[in-house]
Sequence to fold (454 residues):
Amino acid sequence: MLETDIIWQQCLILLKEQFGEQDFNTWFKQLQARYKDNKLQIIANNRLVQDFIRNKYLTQISNILNELTGGVDIELIVAKSSEIKPNTPKPTQVKTNTTPKSHDKDLAENLQQATKLNPNYTFDTLVRGNSNQLAYAIGMHVTQKLGHKNHNPLFIYGGVGLGKTHLMQAIGNEQYKNNPKAKIRYLHANDYIQDVVKASMRQGFDELKKYYNSLDLLLMDDIQFIAGDKTKTQEEFFYTFNTLIDKGKQVIMTCDTYPKNINNLNERLISRFASGLTVEIQPPELEMRVAILKRKAEQNRINLDDEVAFFIAQNIKANVRELEGALNKVIYQAHFSEKGISLAIAKEALMDVFALDSRSISIDDIQKIICDFYKLKISDLLSAKRTQVIARPRQMAMSLSKELTQHSLPAIGNAFGGRDHTTVIHAQKTIHNLRKTDEKIEREYNLLIQMLNT
Fold:
C-alpha cells in the first residue's frame, strides 16, 4: 500500500533525526514495513535485530507511528528469506580504494609531516556509544575553546584499544583544519624520551625547550611511559608542561590509568595532570561494537550481514582492536574459502579465538561474583524478595548474564528463581538506563565485567 510506504518513510526520517545517522544506519535502515491483518508489521532481517529493536527502540517507534497515523497496532516480525528485499548488491571482497586527488593527498601528507597526526583519525570516523559519549563531547568542546583553564590539561584514560589515540588526534585534526598555521605536535611518550636523550647527548636542551615551548597544542600518547624515566625526562616535561599551561596552550594526554594510579611518577606531575579535566573511555557496549563492525566493513566495501555482526560483537568484548582483528579474520576466511561472509564462515574463522577464551562465563560465575561484590547469599538472588539491596544486584546479575552469556532470556530468568523472560528484559532496561544517569552503577557494572573476565 502506497500510504503505508509513505508513513514508514516519514517514520524513518524522524528516527534518523532522533537517534542520529550512526544508530539509524545500524538498526533502522534495513527495517521494512507493510500493512497486513489490520496491523502495521515492521519486518526485521533476523531474530537478533528483532530482539534488539523490541528491547531498545520499539517504544519510540510506536510513539512516532501513533503520531503519524493517529493510532495503529504494531507487530514486529522476522522476515522469511523470500520476503527480504535485497539492497543494491555490494562486493564481498576487499577492493582497493580509488586513488585520491593529488591535492587531497598533498594536504594529508603535509598534515602528517607537520604534526605527525593521522588524517584518518577524525570525529567523523570515530564511532560513538555510551562508553565514549562523554569523552567525545568533551573533545568537541575542547576544539571550541582550546587552552581554556577548565579543560587544560585534558587527561584521557582507559584500557588498551578503546580509541583514546583516535579521540586525541581527532582534536588535533580539527584544530589543524580550523587553523593550519597552529603549531601542533602529536607524539608517543617514548618519542619524547628519545628527544630528551638526544638533547642530553649533544647538550641541546635549549633547542629542545624552544621547540616544545613554542607549540600551540601538545598531544602526548601513553604518558605513563615517562614514569619509567625517573630523572631528566620527568623534569624536562614538568617545565615544558608548566610553560605551555601558563601560556594558555592546550596539553592533551592519554594514559592507561587515572593520574594518581601511575606508578613511579613524580608527585608534582601527578598533581598537575589531575589539575585540569580527566575523562575515562570504557569498553564498548554491544550496540557500539556492532556499529564499529558495520563501519569497518563499510570502509572496506564489505557487505556484513547483521547476524554476523551480532555474532562477532557478542563474542569479542575486550576492545576495538580485537573486534577489528576478528572481523579481518572473518573477511580473509571468506576470501580464501571463496565463499561469501556468513555466520558459518565467521564461526570457522574465529574458532581459535574462542578456543583461547575457552573459560566461558556462566550464569553461576556471574551469580557468585555478584554475591561476593554485594555481600549477599545466592539464596537472596533466587528468592522473591524485592528490597532494594537485593533487587538491584539481581537486576545487575541478569543484565550481565544477557551481555556475557549465550543463554536465552527464558533460560536466564529460570536461573534466577524461575522468573520469566519479561523480568530479564525489565532488569536489562533498568540497568541500561541507570548506567546513563548514575556514575556509581556505571562504575560497578564495568568493574564486575573486569572481574568476570580475569
